Amino acid sequence: KTKAASAQAKTVAAPRRRASDDPVESIKASILDHLTHTFARDTAGATPRDWFLATAMSARDHLTSRLIKTQSAHNDQNVRRLYYLSLEYLMGRLLISSLQNAGVYDHTRQALEELGVDWEALRASEDDMGLGNGGLGRLAACFIDSLATLDLPAIGYGINYEFGLFRQAFENGHQVENPDSWMIYGTPWELMHPEYQQEVQIYGEVENVFDDSGNYRPQWVNTHKLVGVPNDIPVPGYGTETVNILRLWTSHATEPLDLNAFNEGGYVEAVRNKATSETISKVLYPNDKTENGKELRLVQQYFFVACSLKDIIRRHMRVEGNGWHNFADKVAVQLNDTHPAIAVAELLRILIDEESLDWDEAWAIITKTFAYTNHTLLPEALEKWGVPLYARVLPRHLQLIYEINRRHLETVAAKWPGDNEMLSTCSIVEEGGGKQLRMAHLAVVGSHAVNGVAALHTELLKKDLFPYFDTLFPGKFRNKTNGITPRRWLLDCNPALSALITKTLGRPDWPRNLDLLQALGKEADQPAFQQEFMAIKRVNKVALAETIQELCGIEVSPDALFDVQIKRLHEYKRQHLNLLHIVALYRRLLQNPDLDMVPRVFVFAAKAAPGYDLAKNIIRAINVIGARINHDERIQGKLKVAFLPNYRVTLAEKIIPAADLSEQISTAGKEASGTGNMKLALNGALTIGTLDGANVEIGEEVGDDNIFIFGMTVEEVEAVRNAGYRPYDFYYADEELRAVIDWIGSDYFTPGERHAFAPLHHSLLDGGDPYMVLADFRSYSDAHLAVDAAYRDSPRWAKMAIMNTARVGKFSSDRTIREYAEDIWNLPPVPVK
Ligand code: AZC
């Protein structure tokens, strides 16, 4: 008989909570109290989800008092604050990180155990908060964790999407998408604050009217009104009292029901306006690099920016009265990519149209307030908006952007007199083929600092993307290499390794000071430590093997090398290069079944944008070819391919601690930074990668001996492209490569279904192989031979793995945020007592 069953016999309704000196007892009481009084359940009938909710509420109780304390400390001292504007926050589950950061994780685990509650079932019933696509959204989530941990006064602003990134399933190898109704039954973490709702306007037109003082001025009229209601998520720091907030806006109509329309036209008419308004925060757009031209996307951007700016101004004026003179002293706004770049024009509109500041005054405030982060060089990701669309949705902003541009081009003309080409290159408005607004140019012009996300990326940003802007605004461009929070990405997701680290270092504070891991380097040669380290890796691999069995029905051996590529599916990330190598290995094994190779399990997880056909074709190819390989007894289980469905934060937390090898194989110059590379290295996976993004800096930290670098450099890619890249040259020169490509192009893997992988096949050859997969294939294959040799030498591999964990302290997002705070935001910490 379980403890829960016996508890249930006694406990029908918990008494109201009593204070207890014993922390475990008081948490137990708190959980039971919420179970009974918040959710009206008794212990007998409670489902795992009820237990999750009660535990989450109990965790929240620890956070809310700290949240109130933090906010009043910030308000009382009227501190300078950072406002992070991001259309995406890829948070994942919040239970463990909330408990850890509240400092009650162990006690809560014990309390639940004593209550006889199944912890795994409990935590599995929390849906991921998947309000982001990939790296950009996950970075925002790591950043708000670090901001709170470093006691920095900060508020994150975004949209409370009712549907996050789609849920992915596979049917016959094809990706199918289902809606992610993560909050359909509510979420315990959000606190709704109707008292801080904001009304904003959109659409309409601009009229010129005489104002009270007889001046002729433009006025934005006949607008459509919207209401944004904030939902706050507490963001606790680790090992500190600070609890910041993430404020996510939900869109509402000003009038929920139009009774006149109801009387005349019926129900549908009566709620039409409500439905349209609520559509704005309905769903996250599922592309991670493109979202151009869609009206609803523009409306989303403006809606959350306008609500957030009003909220920021409200907070400032509450203390300062009419305090524009020191607004920029108290307010720093970071634009996460160009998605919130309309903020530049919106603040200008407020200052000029509503507050009657003159242009120069207004512009000075703006450029002191904003800073902008660029996350990619891919041209298709650079946001552009058609002028006609803008004229319809944001007519007044369009006028203001034109005026910003006119003044900006004066500066350009002064710098390069008579150079018309320079004017059109630098312009915010792109002419020809339908006028478009270049949001990146607006963001650069309107900000005092612009940063890239890894050293190489920032160099390319200055050189290729904004060459003239770097000359025009010397010193504006700087680098802030990305980081990851070591709380979620080591402490929470890899408890066994964390315990070993704490024991070895003799101190538990490394999650706040990741450079302490350096000291593990001293143990890297010690056989006993190597064994402990690798034993933990093996346990994590056994757990992942079970997940693979469960999700894919594939049996894999934990003794094989786990070779992992987990990230969005995109051509530039080159999952197809990985696939070509797998097929080459398969072919080698068929030619020589006794081939002496380390058995490998290739683990993939990736979502493709629903409209990205080639990416979906690559998913299908990996699934279908993988299935064939998995079932081929001739190769004696030496190769397995597992494509885990529905990649998300929670799945990453399972895969990363179990990885031996981390695939970071983008075409050089294309991956701005990468952050999965950091998470995997921190958990003792070795990187096989190109000299791209943050791989370069990871290599510098771990040393050449502890990483497998292959492929062309940025300069070589450029040289080959300039010389006229011809994939067929590589195809004909390399017999194995040719055979592999032909094989994929045949119907061998899809009997009866010809041309199944024609899109992939075409892109590699006649399509011109835009990401130079063929050019890097041989070097990649050779690097894998080096991996194989290293893995056979277990002590050597163990040492390399330990060195990775020991030497990647630089990639803590605490370091990144400290750099932003000092160099861009000028933001001092505010400890909360
Ligand atoms: C990503 C980059 O592709 C990735 O390299 C980087 O690590 C991450 O941002 C965080 O900086 N970019 C995006 O997800 N999206 C866009 C629009 O760039």
From TrEMBL:
<dbReference type="GO" id="GO:0005980">
    <property type="term" value="P:glycogen catabolic process"/>
</dbReference>
<comment type="function">
    <text>Phosphorylase is an important allosteric enzyme in carbohydrate metabolism. Enzymes from different sources differ in their regulatory mechanisms and in their natural substrates. However, all known phosphorylases share catalytic and structural properties.</text>
</comment>
<feature type="region of interest" description="Disordered">
    <location>
        <begin position="1"/>
        <end position="23"/>
    </location>
</feature>
<dbReference type="InterPro" id="IPR011833">
    <property type="entry name" value="Glycg_phsphrylas"/>
</dbReference>
<keyword id="KW-0963">Cytoplasm</keyword>
<keyword id="KW-0808">Transferase</keyword>
<dbReference type="Pfam" id="PF00343">
    <property type="entry name" value="Phosphorylase"/>
</dbReference>
<feature type="modified residue" description="N6-(pyridoxal phosphate)lysine">
    <location>
        <position position="679"/>
    </location>
</feature>
<dbReference type="InterPro" id="IPR035090">
    <property type="entry name" value="Pyridoxal_P_attach_site"/>
</dbReference>
<dbReference type="InterPro" id="IPR000811">
    <property type="entry name" value="Glyco_trans_35"/>
</dbReference>
<comment type="similarity">
    <text>Belongs to the glycogen phosphorylase family.</text>
</comment>
<protein>
    <recommendedName>
        <fullName>Alpha-1,4 glucan phosphorylase</fullName>
        <ecNumber>2.4.1.1</ecNumber>
    </recommendedName>
</protein>
<dbReference type="GO" id="GO:0008184">
    <property type="term" value="F:glycogen phosphorylase activity"/>
</dbReference>
<keyword id="KW-0663">Pyridoxal phosphate</keyword>
<dbReference type="GO" id="GO:0005737">
    <property type="term" value="C:cytoplasm"/>
</dbReference>
<keyword id="KW-0328">Glycosyltransferase</keyword>
<comment type="function">
    <text>Allosteric enzyme that catalyzes the rate-limiting step in glycogen catabolism, the phosphorolytic cleavage of glycogen to produce glucose-1-phosphate, and plays a central role in maintaining cellular and organismal glucose homeostasis.</text>
</comment>
<keyword id="KW-0021">Allosteric enzyme</keyword>
<feature type="compositionally biased region" description="Low complexity">
    <location>
        <begin position="1"/>
        <end position="14"/>
    </location>
</feature>
<dbReference type="GO" id="GO:0030170">
    <property type="term" value="F:pyridoxal phosphate binding"/>
</dbReference>
<keyword id="KW-0119">Carbohydrate metabolism</keyword>
